[in-house]
Design a protein that fits this description.
Elements: H1 4-19, H2 22-43, H3 46-60, H4 68-92, H5 96-112, H6 117-136, H7 142-168, H8 174-195, H9 207-227, H10 240-267, H11 276-302, H12 305-326, H13 337-363, H14 370-373, H15 376-382, H16 385-395, H17 400-422, H18 430-438, H19 443-468, H20 473-490, H21 496-511, H22 521-542, H23 548-571, H24 580-603, H25 612-634, H26 644-671, H27 694-722
Helix pairs in contact: 2-3, 2-7, 2-20, 3-6, 3-7, 4-6, 4-7, 5-6, 5-17, 8-9, 8-10, 8-11, 9-10, 10-13, 10-25, 11-12, 11-13, 12-13, 17-18, 17-22, 18-22, 19-21, 19-22, 20-21, 23-24, 23-25, 23-26, 24-25, 25-27, 26-27
């Protein structure tokens, strides 16, 4: 029995590695960074090895996701950035004023890398880390500069070779399949939260808990779309792999939408009034869906026949349980009859979509490894200039949010570098280094990261100093460096303070060999870190701050306007909607932005607590409006023809919904005066002439209720704003 717990832990780690290969990422970094150290120790070129390792480590901070082409472009981009800013840092380090001006540009550019998402944040490290350290250790002549550039180029090339070697023998489409598998895994987590309480022993999950899991599903879908932008309707059957995977992702996204609709139906049921038989049947169906999602996630990655068999068995079990739930509909007088009927209907669709996903995967040809899938011509096309031009345009896409953050980061890091240079602080490069890492777009995140950074840096500095004075530390240091590279990646998204602990150890061991007996080194490093963290907090508070107490109304207005545009494009536009999922994603993203802003608003010291209720209720009502719009589209394929009288009733209902939308938009202008969206006049006849099914009209009725609730909460907010 004592072996069960460790076995479960190891099994869980292996499962996590399957979906998010963090360990292989850390292993790639460790291998790319430690080999130069070993070479330097063996050949007495320790300084050169340190620069090679630094270069490899900086580029390795970019997680290699996506196709082989995307990975290759990241590796080449990392080499270019490290070379460019090594040159800038090395030639400016001897002059304090040129260094300060250069730091201002570097800080601003590093902030703009937020426009490129997670990969952009990783590439930003290649900019500011290399610049700050090379500026702290400038070259003295052309020969020294040429030598350093050569060493950095070797380090970057070595890292690229390691990254390419790691990808060459993996199946070419596995990253795409993994991105879809992550969606299935998040769907499983969502169902688990929805099912809580229906077994009769626990309390049901709150709306907030369910919405957070729903956001995770949507983030997984957005992440997959960011890596593989071509959607199902844009792919032809000629590219079989691309076509089948795009269709599979579409089916997976629709499964998520149906699960959310099931959650809505369950919200409207009073669990206390349901008999145990019904509760257990609903719980059994939800658990069957959860197990099916888990198995689909595994099958997406491995594509093994035994996994396919398990998926089919889960589908069959869900089908059997759905058939059992149908029996409840025989009692038509029950208040649960209609909701249960809709749950059965949605469950049957989930079964069809899951079978469709399985069939799409079965129809794919064998997924060959990368080195067999990419010809020389195709590989050369990967580095086509159009890809670089597109990324440069995204990088310099100036907007209020990123520009303010970039300016804040530039000014704060420049002040820190000036202090380091002016007072000639020993190892003072930790000051601007800490500022630019700790400073986040939002004040609350900056506070949290500053605290974690201080704990990790101080403890890591102490541990690194101890290792430096340990006898026979040559072999110990190499071992500790290897472990540090693994652990810093593993804890990066789990516990930042622990990740910083290992990052600090690695930097200490890499650059401070000559200062191993300096007792003040640890204290200096700790003070520099504390000073940098304090400067970052002050900058976050005083330099172009992003206070959500100010921006939340704007985010909320955007969310309401997005739903309005979604509704108008569907029913009052001359042009038919060809891609409704684009409208869906836009509305859901705006809702998510408002929800995130609200959470940050509640953490701010100046938050107006009296507005807590209206803001939260508004966001939740607006989320439900989006869901009802989605539900109408999901039911579109089952819409039945109705008579002209029904069509007239439908148009009257759409006209009434438009009235309440317009009333809400007028109130939105009071809380956000910058809103200038063009409204459709009240009384305008809908251009949508296709009769809706009774279920779709039910969703419209629900939408009308939510719009009236939105109007009530907007009135409260508008009154508070005018006081």
């Amino acid at each position: 029995m004592a072996l069960i717990a460790p076995y479960k832990t190891i099994n869980k780690l292996l499962e996590q590695e399957t979906f998010e290969p963090v360990f292989s990422w850390g292993l790639r970094m460790a291998f790319a960074a430690i080999i130069p150290v070993i070479w330097g120790s063996a050949t007495n070129h320790v300084a050169d090895a340190s620069w090679m390792t630094l270069t490899a480590e900086c580029i390795c901070w970019v997680e290699l996701k996506g196709s082989f082409g995307q990975r290759l472009r990241i590796l080449l981009g990392g080499i270019f950035l490290t070379l460019a800013f090594t040159l800038l840092g090395s030639v400016t380090g001897n002059n304090i004023w040129i260094s300060v001006i250069s730091m201002l540009a570097v800080g601003f550019i590093s902030g703009l890398f937020k426009n490129l998402g997670d990969r952009g944040s990783g590439l930003a490290i290649c900019v500011y880390v290399v610049f700050i350290i090379t500026n702290a250790y400038p070259t003295q002549d052309i020969k020294g500069l040429e030598h350093r550039m050569l060493v950095v180029l070797i380090g970057g090339t070595w890292n690229a070779l390691v990254g390419i070697a790691a990808a060459l023998f993996t199946p070419a489409r596995q990253p795409y399949r993994r991105s879809v598998a992550v969606i299935w895994r998040n769907i499983s987590d969502l169902i688990e939260v929805i099912a809580k309480g229906w077994e009769g022993t626990e309390v049901r999950s709150s709306l907030r808990d369910i919405y957070l899991k729903e956001k995770s599903v949507r983030n997984a879908i957005d992440s997959s779309l960011a890596l593989y932008e071509t959607m199902a309707h844009q792919v032809t059957a000629k590219d079989q792999h691309e076509y089948q995977l795009a269709q599979t992702r579409k089916a997976t996204s629709l499964v998520a939408a149906h699960i959310i609709t099931i959650s809505e139906e369950l919200e409207r049921l009073n669990i206390q009034d349901a008999d145990n038989s019904l509760k257990l049947k609903i719980y059994a169906i939800l658990k069957a869906m959860q197990k099916l999602s888990e198995r689909m996630a595994s099958f997406m990655i491995v594509l093994k026949p035994e996994e396919e068999l398990l998926v089919i068995s889960r589908i069959n079990r869900l089908d059997n349980l759905t058939s059992l739930l149908k029996e409840y509909n025989s009692n038509d007088d029950s208040k649960f009859a209609e909701p249960v009927k809709r749950i059965v209907h949605l469950s049957e669709r989930v079964i069809k979509l899951a079978l469709s996903a399985v069939n799409n995967l079965k129809e794919m040809e064998k997924d060959h490894s990368v080195f067999r899938s990419y010809s020389l011509v195709r590989t050369m096309f990967i580095i086509h200039p159009k890809h670089w031009i597109r990324n440069v345009k995204l990088l310099f896409n100036f907007n209020t949010f990123t520009t303010r953050y970039a300016m804040r980061s530039a000014i704060a890091s420049t002040i820190a570098l000036f202090i380091f240079k002016w007072f000639k602080i020993d190892h003072g490069y930790w000051l601007p280094f800490t500022v630019i890492i700790v400073l986040q777009p939002y004040f609350g995140a900056t506070l949290t990261k500053a605290f974690d950074r201080m704990i990790g840096t101080i403890t890591g500095g102490i541990a690194g100093g101890i290792f430096l004075i340990t006898p026979m530390r040559l072999y110990l240091n190499e071992t500790i460096l290897f472990i540090s590279y693994l652990m810093m990646v593993y804890f990066l998204r789990r516990r930042y303070s622990i990740a910083v602990f290992f990052i600090t150890i690695s930097v200490v061991l890499l650059f401070d060999v000559e200062d191993s007996l300096n007792p003040m080194l640890i204290l200096t490093r700790a003070l520099a870190t504390a000073g940098g963290a304090a400067l970052a907090i002050i900058a976050g508070f005083a330099l172009l701050p992003h206070w959500d107490a100010k921006w939340l109304p704007s985010y909320l207005a955007d969310a309401i306007c997005s739903n309005y545009s979604y509704f108008v494009a569907t029913y009052f536009s001359d042009m038919p909607v060809t891609n409704w999922t684009r409208l869906k994603r836009s509305a859901e993203t705006k809702n998510s932005n408002a929800f995130d802003s609200f959470n940050r608003y509640m953490q701010e010291p100046r938050a107006k607590r009296k507005q807590f209720g209206p803001y939260y209720q508004l966001i939740m009502h607006n989320v439900r409006v989006t869901r009802e719009l989605n539900n109408v589209y999901l039911e579109q394929e089952n819409a039945t023809t109705t008579g002209q009288s029904d069509l007239q009733v439908q148009n009257n209902k759409l006209t009434e919904i438009l009235y309440w939308f317009n009333a809400n938009m007028e109130l939105v202008k009071k809380i956000n005066t910058e809103n200038n969206i063009q409204l459709v006049e009240n009384g305008t006849s809908p251009h949508f002439n296709q009769p809706l099914s009774s279920l779709q009209q039910l969703y419209l009725d629900r939408m009308l209720i939510e719009l009236k609730a939105v109007h009530s909460d907007l009135l409260k907010l508008a009154n508070n704003e005018t006081e």
